[in-house]
Amino acid sequence: MTPIATRPPFMRYRSYRPGRRVTTLAALAAAGGAMLLSSAAAVGTSARGGEEQGPSAPMRYYKGNLHTHTLNSDGDSTPEEVVRWYREHGYDFLVLTDHNFLTGVDGLNALQGAPGKFLVVRGEEVTGAVDKKPIHVNGLEVSRLVSPPQATTVVGMIQGMVDGIRAADGVPSINHPNFGWAITAEELASVQRTRLFEVYNGHPQVNNVGGGGMPGLEEVWDRLLTGGKLIYGIAVDDAHYFKRPWDAAVPTPGHGWVYVQAPALEPRALVQALEAGRFYSSTGVELQAVEASATGLRVVVKATTFSKYRVQFIGQGGRVLREVAAADARYAYTGDERYVRAKVLESNGAVAWTQPVGVGSGAPQ
């Protein structure tokens, strides 16, 4: 195993904190400080991470939901009503993802958008089925409508959707693998040209935690990473119903979201950051900082007065490497982990997930 101090050339050392500028390795060395990098940079995402931002580009976190429906498919509210809900509830951006329908966003941004404050992003949930198994892949910031392909296998259907989204200049995200128990870990491992999947979906019927002998989505995530596939876990609403907030049996808004670290609140900047893993996912926990150095990983929670926190550092096979009962937690690499990711558990049930940090030569690719 390659020592942790020896990193592949794709590693880009940076520090990512809300409201901070990116700090280069040279600047840190000059200051005598620790070498810091984002969790995304540590796993080598430059192959599909879009344009690299310069060392002086200002970076901040933007809160957004990546999976939402309107009356244009099977939601209960107009696009304007849906957009208004998210803006009024403190989100910075929203992706509208109606089934096999590309909802226009120009008029919505003219009414509700504001530069640097709120943005609506184009999206589509490309929707199909194989042997009655529902296969759904979101296309984020697609330039045109993407039709589901004709396919006879689950992998063929997903790959066709991913390729179609790429051809439309979009970023694919594989949705709720356990919905209808449609997609196995082995099938996910066979899909190419994608970096995102839903580790948490707020729909009440998508089986996030597994059951009946079927693995939960965190277990699936660790199987993929342990097998060498680099993939990032997003949390989403999959909201359909905005007029029945009391009804726990239907998919309502406000359950899962991402905090994306980008230089600007612009569609392409956001999706490039997602593909580069410059984000964390949450159902209610906000983080102050995620710092990955050459020697370890640190997570700092933006703590509330009424909550307590546990931070788990998780490695290959889903093994908990260390658990810290504090809002400021650190893990020191031993050199043979291959990857480390953090999970924050809040005392009232909220969770946050950071993206995996590669460790040594066996890091997921």
Q: What would your notes on this structure say?
A:
The structure is a single chain. This protein has helices at residues 25-31, 39-42, 79-88, 106-112, 154-167, 185-190, 217-226, 267-275; strands spanning 36-37, 60-65, 93-95, 98-99, 119-121, 123-130, 133-140, 171-174, 196-201, 232-236, 257-262, 279-282, 287-293, 296-301, 309-314, 320-324, 328-332, 338-346, 351-353, 357-359. By secondary structure, the chain is α+β, with helices and mostly antiparallel strands. It has two domains: 25-53 and 285-359, Immunoglobulin-like (Sandwich); 60-277, Alpha-Beta Barrel (TIM Barrel), CATH 3.20.20. Strands 2, 3, 5, 11, 12, 15, 16, 18, 19 and 20 form a ten-stranded mixed sheet that branches. It has a six-stranded mixed sheet with strand order 4-6-7-8-9-10. β18 (338-346) and β19 form a beta hairpin. The longest helix is centred in the middle third of the chain and has 14 residues, at 154-167. The radius of gyration is 19 Å and the shape is globular.
